[in-house]
TrEMBL record:
Principal localisation: membrane
Organism placement in taxonomy: Bacteria, Pseudomonadati, Pseudomonadota, Alphaproteobacteria, Sphingomonadales
Source organism (scientific name): Sphingomonas hankookensis
Keywords annotated in UniProt: Cell membrane, Cytochrome c-type biogenesis, Membrane, Transmembrane, Transmembrane helix
Bilayer topology annotation: Multi-pass membrane protein
One Pfam family linked to the record: DsbD_TM
Name this protein carries in UniProt: Thiol:disulfide interchange protein
Length: 671
């Protein structure tokens, strides 16, 4: 225990003894954190383990402490009273929060939190036996100004039974388990000196929000010192001020609000993360984004819009000043839209969610909206109706040019061109300001052809002279837009199934009928010709709320043909049929898992051997911390992934395979 923490505890005890804490904090029986103890099963079987939850609800403005409270504070002290032969396991805390007061770092909970443990019941108890569980807990509760030591007496009674668990209670415990840090499954290293350097394996492909390392090992780091965290390939390197030497360092790497991984690091050599060359890196990424945006103009989703806008500029015969103004406005629309999409993307990733460019296309509702939009543009190009506003292709004006540039950028999101992947991938690991510059480069490249037309009179003079051919050309440009709409319909079908695709095509049909009606009213010179079109578009857009993502089809997540998602029911069915089963548990954030999958599991030799031997493959994806998989993993005495199990035909128990696999390890199972 550090001297600062010892002094802090003595001060708290002295204040409580002298009664100098605020009167409101000393009302007898009043507690600022309400606690209760809950068992996952009220009727556990004799000799079994039953999960216990210590549920804590702080009053507004108050907080409790993590098991390592940080620079000051104290962890809860628990005193259990249990029947003879019963015992409780270690406490498991959810991922904490940081709280800095006057430069002092605290590890706290300012929201409701739940600590989990397990009660081991003695064997031989008869059904109906009452098992009382008592807990006396001393803890510290604080605001940002005052602290109060509190005490709670908690109790529950269990009745020995069949171990049944109420579904609502199971759902509560599953939610509490999701808040626990997950084992990373890959070894970490640390190197200590004046600076502690910690290297944690973490795939570069996985997004991470605001990372922070919460140390559990006391006297290893200076809690108040800032932490520098940088990516180094498939690892994170954490640097902070060291305060002592340790044989091992344990802690939690938080990757976002309520999300984190349990870390145990052993001594080793840890090189500092390579310092990037920011200016050079940003310039290269900016150039790649600019070229990628430039090449987007020949994609079927953008080329028609650019072509019509360029021809309208040639047809209008406006002055050079007007042409430049339109070019600037068009560029502003494209750049603003790309930066807005990029800003949303960075915000999503900062929250710890993996996402990439065109992230919005992962939502079937957005895909349906894009389907209606591109279909409407195609129908406009085909001559079904005329657009008075926004001025797309056949009108002039700065407002119309801005709207057209924004439209071109938004419609371009389903398209991917050369140079874009590397440039936007670089943007996601750059500082936010530099990343936004890269997204601006994409929009600038997209708008560059029209901008050059506005500022270079020689280019405008080379445009074809207006004539009747322009109407035929415009109708021809509807074809690539219809192809874009077809591609979006296919994406919608992949995401929402046949029902979703049918709903999307129905929305497009409804919009098309309304636009056709508008076109007929325009030809007749009717007032308010856009009424039916607007009504149909509103209904078509509203239908997006009805689209839902189709449930997983059970496709294999591995290179082995016939692999299925893991479930205990499917495992039991295959074993009942006498089939050999290879079950493995993985996660996207587990580097060891991914290495094993590429180097061993997904090799041709293993696929052929499993095929000849009739081995069924079940894959448990624990990326999102599925509590059902977590319970199964824990039942095999593992804290996390990777876990590899082989069930031979007729065998009673699973064979637990090593955590580092080779192709021979798996092929020998069959032979």
């Amino acid at each position: 225990m550090t001297p600062a923490r010892t002094l802090w505890r003595l001060v708290l005890i002295l204040f409580a003894f002298l009664g100098v804490l605020p009167v409101a904090a000393q009302v007898p029986g009043q507690r600022h954190v309400q606690m209760r103890i809950v068992a996952e099963s009220d009727a556990p079987a004799a000799g079994s383990r039953v999960a216990l939850a210590l549920v804590s609800m702080p009053d507004a403005g108050w907080h409790g402490y993590w098991q390592n409270p940080g620079a000051v504070g104290t962890q809860p002290q628990l005193d259990w009273t249990l029947p003879a032969g019963a015992s409780v396991g270690p406490l498991r805390y959810p991922v904490p929060e940081r709280l800095t007061v006057a430069g002092i770092m605290n590890y706290v909970y300012e929201r409701p939190w739940t600590i989990l443990t397990e009660l081991q019941l003695p064997a031989g108890l008869a059904k109906g036996t009452i098992v009382p569980v008592r807990l006396s807990i001393d803890y510290l509760v604080c605001t940002r100004e005052i602290c109060v030591p509190e005490k709670a007496e908690l109790a529950t009674e269990l009745t020995i039974g069949d171990g049944a668990i109420n579904p609502e209670r199971r759902a509560d415990f599953d939610g509490w388990r999701r808040a626990l840090p997950r084992p990373l499954g890959s070894p970490a290293l640390f190197q200590a000196g004046d600076t502690l350097r910690l290297r944690v394996p973490f795939p570069a492909s996985q997004a991470i929000g605001d990372p922070y390392f919460f140390p559990l090992t006391e006297s290893a780091v200076d809690y108040d010192a800032p932490q520098k965290i940088a990516r180094d390939g498939d690892a994170l390197v954490i640097e902070t001020k060291a305060t002592g030497k340790s044989a091992a360092i344990e802690g939690v790497l938080a990757t976002g609000p309520g999300k984190g991984f349990a870390i145990r690091a052993t001594p080793g050599t840890v090189a500092a993360a390579a310092e990037p060359a920011p200016i050079r890196t940003v310039l290269i990424a900016f150039a790649g984004a600019l070229l990628g945006g430039l090449l987007l103009n020949i994609m079927p989703c953008v080329f028609p819009i650019l072509s019509l806008k360029a021809l309208s500029l040639a047809r209008s015969g406006e002055s050079a000043v007007h042409a430049r103004a339109e070019g600037v406005a068009y560029t502003a629309g494209a750049v603003v839209t790309c930066m807005a999409l990029g800003g949303i993307l960075l915000a999503i990733r900062a929250a710890g969610v993996a996402a990439g460019w065109a992230f919005q296309l992962t939502d079937p509702r957005v895909v349906l909206l894009l389907l209606v939009l591109t279909g409407g543009i195609a129908l406009n190009l085909a001559g079904l109706f005329e657009l008075p506003t926004p001025q797309v292709g056949n009108r002039s004006g700065r407002g119309g040019a801005f709207a057209t540039g924004a439209l071109a950028a938004f419609v371009a999101t389903p398209c991917t061109g050369p140079f874009m992947g590397a440039a936007l991938g670089s943007a996601l690991v750059l500082p936010p300001v530099a990343a936004m510059a890269v997204f601006a480069g994409l929009g600038f490249g997209l708008a560059l052809p029209f901008l050059l037309l506005g500022f270079v009179p020689a280019l405008r003079r080379r445009l074809p002279k207006p004539g009747a051919w322009m109407d035929a050309f415009r109708k021809a440009l509807s074809v690539p837009m219809f192809l874009t709409a077809l591609a979006l319909a296919w994406i919608l079908g992949r995401q929402s199934g046949v029902d979703g695709m049918a709903m999307g095509l129905g929305a497009l049909l409804l919009a098309g009928l309304g636009l056709w009606w508008t076109g007929r009213r325009q030809l007749r010179g009717r007032d308010r010709a856009w009424r039916p079109g607007i009504a149909a578009l509103v209904l078509a857009v509203a239908s997006a709320a009805l689209v839902q993502r189709a449930p997983p089809a059970g496709a294999a997540t591995t290179g082995i043909a016939g692999a299925e998602p893991f479930s205990e029911a499917r495992l039991a069915a295959l074993r009942a049929e006498g089939k050999p089963v290879f079950a493995y548990f993985t996660a996207d954030w587990c580097l060891t898992c991914k290495v094993n999958e590429r180097a061993a599991i997904e090799t041709r030799a293993v696929a052929e051997a499993f095929g000849k031997g009739g081995v069924k493959v079940l894959v448990g994806d624990w990326t999102d911390g599925d509590p059902a998989l977590g319970r199964f993993i824990e039942a095999h005495n593992r804290a996390g992934v990777p876990l590899y199990l082989y069930y031979a035909p007729g065998s009673g128990e699973a064979r637990v395979l090593p955590q580092v696999l080779t192709p021979a390890t798996l092929t020998e199972l069959v032979s």
